[in-house]
UniProtKB/TrEMBL annotation:
Name of protein: LysR family transcriptional regulator
Keywords associated with the record: DNA-binding, Transcription, Transcription regulation
Natural source organism: Acinetobacter faecalis
A Pfam family hit: LysR_substrate
Family listed: Belongs to the LysR transcriptional regulatory family.
Signal peptide: none
A GO MF term: transcription cis-regulatory region binding
Domain HTH lysR-type: 1-60
InterPro entries: LysR_HTH_N, LysR_subst-bd, WH-like_DNA-bd_sf, WH_DNA-bd_sf
Length: 301
């Protein structure tokens, strides 16, 4: 059986227009070409598709059953061809993106939408992980792109472009011991249990760790739940308060009196210099770079 896209399109058009001649006019073909295509399709399928009685062909029951499937099949064939062409011009077969756990509440899906608009057939896989694990996935090739916080020390094979700023805040439940104080000393922080978002690899020391006693989790939603249970204090994204306004009534932002920790970070799109990036990854990187070159409208006004 050798059925091609052109045959299916002619078959569909004949049924929609009601005649071989009308289908020929719509498709820009001669009627004999349309008639021959239908005859060949009937031979390939071993089915009679039209009764040729009178002036116009009448679709058989079998033809109408197949007609219901034709539209979707034509769409899939077109998508298949588009995807094959994209792959031939350098599009990756799939794109793996890892988003650092604390950034899941941000508008990271906007970047996915940008890729989907340009490459609708691309398979995109999204993972979330703590910062250290996201970096590992990037460097071992499990992910091609990572949305993560800026790092004090870059790996030699890392490359990045800045996306935005993100603010983290130290918080506790309003019933927690530290919440009783307007200002919290370093000694008090040291002696109070902290919940930290950290790598699943326990050999890696957590970032933003201040307390002697601490628990670990791999995402900020779990950390928030533990903090709300009055079990520990921790550092959460400030944006969580906008995402869930009820938290403003349940959590207190702690003021550190003895030092000012750095809780404001740039968020970067990161990739490895050693990876052979495909067309979609390169497109997103260039899109962000071009956006950064545009004048800041708030500064102009």
């Amino acid at each position: 059986m050798n059925i091609n896209q052109d045959q299916l399109l002619i078959f569909k058009t004949v049924i929609e227009t009601g005649s071989f001649s009308a289908a020929a006019r719509k498709l820009g073909k001669v009627p004999s070409a349309v008639s021959m295509s239908i005859a060949n399709l009937e031979i390939d399928l071993n089915l009679q598709l039209f009764q040729r009685v009178g002036r116009e062909p009448i679709p058989t029951e079998e033809a109408m059953v197949l007609f219901e499937k034709t539209d979707q099949l034509l769409v899939e064939m077109k998508q298949w061809k588009q995807h094959a062409f994209a792959l031939s011009t350098g599009l990756e077969s799939s794109l793996n993106i890892v988003v650092v756990s604390e950034l899941l509440h941000t508008n990271w899906t906007d970047y996915i939408s940008i890729i989907e608009t340009k490459f609708p057939q691309l398979q995109i896989n999204i993972f979330s992980a703590p910062q250290e694990d996201a970096q590992k996935m990037l460097l071992n090739g499990t992910a091609q792109l990572a949305l993560m916080f800026e790092r004090e020390h870059l790996e030699g094979n890392e490359q990045f472009v800045e996306l935005k700023r993100e603010v983290l805040v130290p918080v506790s439940s309003k019933n927690f011991e530290l919440a009783k104080f307007d200002h919290v000393s370093f000694e008090q922080i040291l002696q109070s249990r902290q919940i930290v978002v950290a790598s699943r690899d326990k050999s890696i020391k957590p970032e933003l760790l201040y307390s002697k006693s601490y628990w670990r989790t791999d995402n900020h939603h779990s950390a928030c739940s533990i903090i709300l249970q009055n079990l520990a204090w921790g550092v959460l994204p400030l944006e969580m308060f906008n995402e869930n306004p009820e938290l403003k009534h349940q959590l207190k932002i702690l003021n550190f009196s003895d030092f000012t920790p750095k809780f404001e970070y740039f968020v970067d799109l990161v990739w490895s210099r050693e990876s052979q990036l495909g067309a979609a990854a390169r497109f997103l990187i260039n899109h962000i770079r071009n956006e950064r070159k545009k004048p800041n409208l708030t500064e102009q006004n």
